[in-house]
Amino acid sequence: MTDTERLPRRASWKRGAALALLAGAVWLPTGADAAASLPRVLWVRGDHTYVALADTASVEEGDAVEFREGEKTVAAGEVAGVYRGEVALVRVTSGSLARARKPDRLRLMFRRPALLPLAAFRIGVPSARRSNLLFSCDHPAPGIPPGSSYRAADAGARAWRLVRDVGEIASPASTAWPETLVVSLFDEAADEEIALERGEVDAAVFWPGELSSRMRDDPRWRGYPSGTRARGVVAMLVAGDPSAPLDTTVVPTLNEQLFRGDLAPWARGRESATQWNAERRAYRPILDVDKALPGHGWLQTRLDQGPFGAGYQPYLSGVVAGVSVARARLTYLDAPPDSVDPFRITPLFTIRCPVVVGAVHRRRVLAMGPDALANLLECPRRGTAP
Amino acid sequence: MPPARDGPVNSLRTRLVLGISLIAVVPLAVAIVLLTDRIEGLVRAQAAERLASALGSIQSQLAQDQRSAVEKLRILARDPELKRLYLVRAGEGRELSGYLAERRLLLDYDFLRITDPRGAVVADAAELPPPAGGGGEGREGRRALRPAAARDPSRGVEIRALQGDSGLALVVSQPIPYRNEEVGRLEGGFALDAEFIDRLREQSGLSLALRDAEGRLAVATDPAGRGAGGSATLPRHDSSVSRMTVPLGLGNPPYPSLAGFASTEQADRAVAALQAASAVLGLAALAIAIALGLLWSSQVSKPVEHLAAASVRLARGEWDEPVALRGVRELETLGAALDRMRLDLRSYRDRLVTSERQAAWSQMARKVAHEVKNPLTPIAISIADLKRSYDQSRPDFPEILDQAVRTIGDEVESLKRLLQEFADFARFPSPRIVPCRWSGLKADLETLYGRETADGRLVVSPEGRDLVFPADAGQLRQALVNLVQNGFDAAGAGGRVTLSSAGNASEVLITVHDSGPGLAPGEEKTLFDPGFTTKAHGSGLGLTIVQRIVIEHAGSIDVDSGPGRGTTFRIHLPLTRES
After folding, report:
1. Nearest CA of chain B to the CA of A256: how many Å?
2. Are A190 and B80 an interchain contact pair (Cβ–Cβ within 8 Å)?
3. Which of B528, B552, B526 is nearest to B542 (CA)?
């Protein structure tokens, strides 16, 4: 029988207090005092302990935690989850905090355990039959992570097996990489999500906008990393005058509404380009989707329906009044972002793919680098080598 | 009117009436028959067309329903939520069943379930009641049904029996793909049950019967139109129901079939009423035609009847009444011609009578002169002998005188007798007809010829029964005496005469046969002419008198004779006589 069942009123009081503390911890001004910059226990309930974090980037799931009273360790546990990077749920695995008089005075020591070598890591990627709105990948090929010694031991139509050379010298970075990468190609994003849920793959790479809302909202996968692909830029350009300055106010909305925010907004040289465009009195773009894009019909329909058509005014607010309207083409450039000159066209996004992984393997994925996983699938154009 | 005149006139009138009636009625009857036949054919054709149209519409609708069911299920089988519930939370069958129950109503299925690759049911929408307020069009709140197990799960569309219900189920099956493999099958579809067939009945207005592929009755509407029932009977096989069966292209061959029944009872009643009205109309037309026929035939036949009567009068020699016909021009012309002919005939007859009378008088004068001259010759010879003997003073003059006187006396006597016969012939009286018995006549003849009867020269055959017939017994006796006497004369001394009689319902036959040599060829033609005789001293009036007596009795006489066969006279006398 739990405490909640036995003493509902007391438990309710405790829960309310914990939530108040949690809210206070989240919303208190950061500059309240120096003590607030240290992690501290907010609330203890059984073997679950809620901890306010001082550094949002320092604690991750799986980190080991020691609760010390002076020099004495009274309990130890493991970070089971991190909420908004500010509150961590710690599961106590040894010792107990029940006897601690002032848990909030306990000193917390976080330690990140080293990743153990892994024999195989399974990852799902889109297959050739699963094109996205921007480009198709008709002839997918294994993308060997740069700097690694993987080789494709088996590259079938449904799965690839990338094996690392035995003699490679272990390093902290290379420890994250498994001996064998098993890459499964999925024809449907739903199958890939289900495989992830069923534990048939350890991580899954999705095309921008593919991942379902259910997965995005599921606490088990929330906070997944994303990896930027080495090739691919979404850009606007005016026919006949690719370098015509265009207003890019539309960019965030377009990304949110069409790609669920998966695309990475163009950043390189953005300020100088924006300034340059402003000086040139940017045109208000009316977007025509490039018909070469696999999803041009759907994209065009959404653009015509949404706040991107000719009737949409708000994003012009604040921009220089009396700007001219220009018909711009929304297109995809199969090129490395580095090769794009922002002064000649108007780049909007780079291709960023969600790399969904569970808590168990999140550190490893982060260690391997989501970009490397997002590029495990290369999409060479027909007739070119990967 | 004599009977001989009634037959043809009545026949003509009857035929005219009949002909006019037929002319009036036959086309009407033919038109009515053709019209009713045409209307009946049209009614049947319309019923068949309505059946075909309704069944075709049902076929199309069901085919569309099948396509729609297949498409909907194909989409549903790829629904990530379904796959997630099935693959990730396979242990929580109730949640999956709830999902299926909700989708069943949303997609308007009667049943929806998931089976694993082995065919075992993993989740079934029927496990949960339909959610309140949910559901597709027309199926809200309808309980989920269960079809029988699949016979061939690989078939995309299959017709199966319903578990626990009468009727069939159209089962659409779609694989649930996962990572390019079939991890289960989604089965959905709709029931072809009593409710289904009742809905079709309401749409089409037909009574319907659904049979499975083997021809077994699965479900049928109530023939009384009260709705459907699995145990309902089919409409009876009678002429008031048009029926048509079409295959339902559902599932895979062999297909179930749908039979439609359209009642033509109302149309049949209308046709029967039309036929009855036509019959009444026909009878009325027949009555009118008969009346008109009688009228017209009377107009046509009356002049013909007058013509026929005039013809009969002419044939009977009544040529005094003129022939006058009015009304029809052709008949008037014919009547005028007949009247001219009547006048001509009368003129010819008068002239012929005068001529015959003159000829008869001439003949009679020649005969009398001849007969008178015959005795005069011996008289003249006797007188010449007497003169010569007297002048010669012959010694035997007295003997010669005596002889001459006897001869002259005989001849004078012969002349007297001859003149008496002619006088008798000339003043021959009309017969006095009374009932006459043959036995009396026979007795008179046997008395008259008692000696000849006794020595067998006259044989009178005994009659079977005593005949009584109208006749003048005296004249008839005289005729028979003449014939018997002629027979004796012809047969000679050794000959024999046979007299016999016979009778039937209409006449009496009296036969006189002699065993004489018979007549020479051609003699029978002039046998009854006055003056004909084969005897040396006959007047030639005997057979003429016999013929005259027979004719006066409205009878007839004929003769049968030939060399060596003797001669037979047959007298035919009628048993009745008109006054």
Report:
1. 22
2. yes
3. B528
Residue of A61, A76, A27 whose CA lies nearest to A225: A61
As a whole number of angstroms, the distance between CA B202 and CA B189 comes to 21
Within a 10 A sphere around the Cβ of B227, how many other Cβ atoms?
Answer: 14
Q: How far is B83 from chain A (nearest CA, A)?
A: 8
By C-alpha distance, the chain B residue nearest A197 is: B88
Distance CA B365, CA B258 (A): 116
A194/B78 touch (CB, cutoff 8 Å), yes or no: no
Partner B contacted by A226 (CB < 8 A): no
ipTM more than 0.90? no
Nearest by Cα to B511 from B542, B478, B487, B531: B487
* Cβ separation B87–A194 shorter than 8 A: yes
- Identify from A188, A200, A211, A214 which residue to disrupt to test chain B contact, counting B C-beta atoms within 10 A and taking the largest count: A188
Least Cα separation, residue A162 to chain B (angstroms) = 20
Contact flag A186-B80 (C-beta cutoff 8 Å): no
CA–CA gap between residue A324 and residue A238 (Å, rounded): 12
Beta bridge partners, A121, equal A181
Sign of CA dihedral B18, B20, B22, B24: negative
Instruction: Select from A158, A197, A214 the Cβ nearest to the Cβ of B180.
Output: A158
Beta-bridge mates of residue B558:
B570
For residue B138, the tally of other CB atoms under 10 A from its CB is 9
Task: Report cis status (omega within 30 of 0) of the bond before B378.
Answer: no
Pick from B83, B87, B179: which is nearest to A186 by CB?
B179
Point out the residue among A188, A194, A212 whose CB comes nearest to the CB of B88. A194
Rounded to whole angstroms, the Cα distance separating A150 from A138 reads 23
- Measured in residues, chain B has a length of 579
Chain A residue with the nearest C-alpha to that of B183: A191
H or E element in which residue A172 lies? helix A172-176
DSSP code at position B205: -
Task: Give just the sign of the alpha carbon dihedral A310, A312, A318, A321.
Answer: positive
How far from chain centre, in Å, is Cα B495? 62
> Do B220 and B209 meet the contact criterion of CB atoms below 8 Å apart?
yes
Strands B241-247 and A203-205: unpaired
Residue numbers of A between 187 and 216 with CB closer than 8 Å to B: 187-191, 193-195, 197-198, 212, 214
- Tens of pLDDT along chain B (579 residues) come to 344 444 444 567 777 778 877 887 788 888 888 888 888 888 788 888 888 888 888 888 888 888 888 899 999 998 988 988 888 876 556 688 888 888 888 888 888 989 888 888 888 887 665 555 444 444 445 555 677 777 666 677 888 888 777 788 888 889 999 988 899 999 988 888 888 888 888 888 888 888 888 888 888 886 554 444 444 455 555 667 788 888 887 777 788 888 888 777 777 788 788 888 888 888 888 888 888 888 887 777 777 778 888 888 888 878 888 887 776 777 788 888 888 888 888 888 788 877 777 776 777 777 777 777 777 888 888 888 888 888 988 888 888 888 888 888 888 887 887 787 777 777 677 888 888 888 888 888 888 888 888 888 999 887 667 888 899 888 898 899 889 988 998 888 888 999 999 888 888 999 999 999 888 887 877 788 776 676 666 667 788 888 888 988 889 999 998 888 899 999 999 887 554
Cβ atoms B156, B174 nearer than 8 A: yes
The β-bridge relationship of strands A141-142 and A377-378 is antiparallel
CB pairs under 8 A between A and B: 33
For an interface test with A, the pick among B75, B78, B84 (most A C-beta atoms closer than 10 Å) comes out as B84
CB-count exposure of residue B292 (10 Å: 0-12, 13-18, 19+): middle
